[in-house]
Amino acid sequence: MEYNLKKRIVITGLGTINSLGNNIEEFWAGIKTEKCGVGPITRTDSTNLATKIAAEVKNFIASEHMDSKDARKMALCTQFAVIAAGEALKDAGLTEGTFNPERVGTILGNGIGGFEVTEASHKVIFEKGPHRTPPLTIPKLISNEIPGNVAITYGLKGPCWVVTTACASSTDAIGNAVMTIQTGRADAIVTGGSEASLTQLGIAGFNVIGALSTKYNDCPEKASRPFDKDRDGFVIGEGAGCLVLEELEHAKARGAKIYAEIAGYGNTCDAYHLTAPNPEGEGAARAIKLALEDAGMKPENIDYVNAHGTSTPTNDPIETKSIKTALGDHAYKVKISSTKSMTGHCIGAAGAIEAIICTLGIRDGFYPATINLDEADPACDLDYVPNKGIEAEMNVAMTNSLGFGGHNSILIIKKYKD
């Protein structure tokens, strides 16, 4: 193995399924037209839930994407991951027989696992007894089955594991994928994350800690409003985002198209509180500085920040503070947006979906909007690209992911230049 942390890592494939579209083209069209994926909950009965809205994947029938027998062995979050990974591999040109399977790995993030499997199996236990527990309960609900099923489906025999750091899971998965390639353990990695937690337990659990929006049940498209003074909580979403990362010379040798380059990664912990961020944003600011250092960049090099921007009263002003601390005066010049205003918050898949947005923003020269930003919170005084995206050259984008447990994870993606 060739250990070289200076190896250049590039993005050669993209795939997604989320509330804005069931593939990259539909999704990106939704982002560029400021479409909102939030609507009434249909995935579960919301009658007794305080929150009745979510950003659900639309028109999804698993058997249209995979063998129905295989689908029945997977939790919904795993189905999403297999679909997004397949799109990313095809986009990268890594089809069966074209690569050494022992040198291609799978590192994916997930925050919660197969909640619908947990609920269904508990129901069986309570109603019929433990002896009637469905035999695939454990293989379907545990998070490592997500990358495991992706690896099985596409014959990827390299490193394979799951990263679980709450809302930072898929960003950390991407960061780990970069380091795995740099340390010579793989030539390419399918990375990103997946989440599907729109269940009674998932929604009620977030409701009781006051995290979800309850104010906009009658107008769901207005509910996710990061940095706005009338925000009242995040809107839970679902889906998956996958990227194929490759060592540059490996990608060039096979003539792969290159979207962009992963330039830097930073990761810290607040070590402060189980669910609340450090009120000064100290941990997030340090993670940004570490990512800049890893990329060999200064604050002035950053053109765009895809903020964590959850639309919660707590996150948005603290994240704003952390950006100011890390970027200094440049914080007032950089364009920032929270695309969760359109996709909702996809928990363990959020960072990967937002890394895809940064990648396509660099490719197309497009700064996505923060929709529903009608009047900014006075504590949120930066340029959040309100309501309408901007077409302009983008060379360097940064994406922030901040999770329960104090996890702070930052990626810097830059335009590829040979």
Notable characteristics:
single chain, about 425 residues, alpha/beta, Peroxisomal Thiolase, Chain A, domain 1, 2 domains, ten-stranded mixed beta sheet, two-stranded antiparallel sheet, globular
Describe the structure.
By secondary structure, the protein is an alpha/beta fold. It has two domains: 245 residues, Peroxisomal Thiolase, Chain A, domain 1, CATH 3.40.47.10; 150 residues, Thiolase/Chalcone synthase (Peroxisomal Thiolase, Chain A, domain 1), CATH 3.40.47. The protein is 32% helix and 18% strand. It is built from 13 helices and 14 strands. It has a ten-stranded mixed beta sheet, sandwiched between helices. Strand 9, helix 11 and strand 10 form a beta-alpha-beta unit. It starts with 8 loop residues before the first strand and ends with a strand. The mean pLDDT is 96.
In a few lines, what is going on in this structure?
32% of the residues lie in helices and 18% in strands. With 418 residues, it is an alpha/beta fold. The strands form 3 sheets. A 10-stranded mixed beta sheet has the order 5-4-6-7-1-8-14-13-9-10, with helices on both faces. A two-stranded antiparallel ribbon has the order 2-3. The protein has a two-stranded antiparallel sheet with strand order 11-12.
